[in-house]
């Protein structure tokens, strides 16, 4: 059976864009971006957003759809992607999901967890407690009631610690318990029938290969004017460092350097290190997906392997 969707995932700098364009050159597809940073307008260099010429070769969706002032949630992504999948298939084309935001892939294929909505009062109480005791203390508190979630969060990750504590205070249940449940609405709801999705995963055999690519990419971003891009965002006056858009890898480090909280001379090393950590998390997510078709992105024939997998699935 011809798959409803082809999904191409991988860590940052693994060659997803080039592989996706190669697929589009051979098959009638439309690309749906699965990337929590590419949704933001005005954030082009630091997100390695596809160039205008690349975007013009094949229809792209969910790129430049949100101002950096406003967050874009996994729930919104699922809603938008489901609608697009149906529309693309109705046009007789194949949806090609491409990106590295693994939470989006999981939400789309497994469904969303039925978590409680935000409660302003509870959030205010948590914020006041953080102001008095500090976020590391609240992280320790979270570890007592939800050790699974606390283990994957840094002690100063205020946004996520606050949300995890909020959920526990509202429900008496740890956030991790919700992640263990699957919502009934999933990608299948879009097509109203069984969905056959093929997930192709670009992963390096040699991690040092990816680290070299990450360093080269960050250097290229700096040379292309990444700092000027962040300066322009700061000059708007309505953005701040705690916004989800400004917490994206690279932007957070550049913001801190421009603030003077970290030395400008350390920006390159801090940016590369943060990107490596992101790639490590992405690979961990991918390895938890047993049905993926893995292609070694550091192999000389990686792109050809991807094309052959797609061709075999569409035959």
Number of strands: 6
Q: Mind telling me the C-alpha Rg?
A: 20 Å
Summing up helix and strand content along with how strands pair, one would put the structural category as alpha/beta
Spatial strand order of the main sheet: 3-2-4-1-5-6
Number of helices: 15
Distance between the termini: 9 Å
Sketch the topology as an H/E string, one letter per element: EHEHEHEHHHHHHHEHHHHEH
Report the principal-axis shape.
globular
Q: What are the segments in which pLDDT stays under 50 over at least 5 consecutive residues?
A: 182-195
Average pLDDT across residues?
90
- Beta-strand content estimate: 5-15%
Helical residue percent?
Answer: 40-55%
- Please outline the major beta sheet: 6 strands, parallel
Which tags fit this structure?
315 residues; alpha/beta; 6-stranded parallel β-sheet; 15 helices
Note down, in words, how this protein is organized.
The structure is a single chain. With 315 residues, the chain is an alpha/beta fold. The chain has 15 helices and 6 strands. The protein starts with a strand and ends with a helix.
Layout of secondary structure:
Elements: E1 5-9, H1 16-26, E2 29-34, H2 52-57, E3 60-61, H3 74-90, E4 94-99, H4 102-110, H5 120-133, H6 135-145, H7 147-151, H8 158-171, H9 175-179, H10 188-191, E5 197-203, H11 207-223, H12 226-235, H13 251-259, H14 267-287, E6 293-296, H15 302-314
Parallel strand pairs: 1-4, 1-5, 2-3, 2-4, 5-6
Helix pairs in contact: 1-15, 3-4, 5-6, 5-8, 6-8, 11-14, 12-13, 13-14
Write a compact overview of the structure shown.
This protein has 315 residues and is of the alpha/beta class. It is built from 15 helices and six strands. 53% of the residues lie in helices and 10% in strands.
